[in-house]
Target: CopY family transcriptional regulator
Amino acid sequence: MYGLSDSLKPLSAAEEQVLLAVWSCKPPASRRDIGERLAEKGWKPATVLNFLYRLEAKGWVKSGKDQNRNIYTPTITKRAYSVWIMRERLDAVFGGDVAAAVRALVSESGCSQSQLEQAIAVLEEKHAEAEEYDLYDPYG
Model:
């Protein structure tokens, strides 16, 4: 799964929301800390706990104890998950065609000029890195 363990089970949309809340806390996160972030969206403490159990069973978090509190630590970084989920959607929706995905995103998402300029800068930086690598001769 693009750098993620194959032992991780797919997430539901609700499980993803809980995992996002875990990442938003300083690790290790207590159930209370996670619940506070989700309470704003109407989540009840028992529901949060149920979903934390699910995330642990699926391999996305590890639980532990800190005195009398349950604590949770994500097993992967938010960035790793973000790359994996974007790649998965790119393959599923656009057949892996990055140009088509960018074209659709730019034309339909209402990106501001500033956002487009930032994206162009990132693409130019990656392009320059690729050129440097292509010019590198380890035997020269």
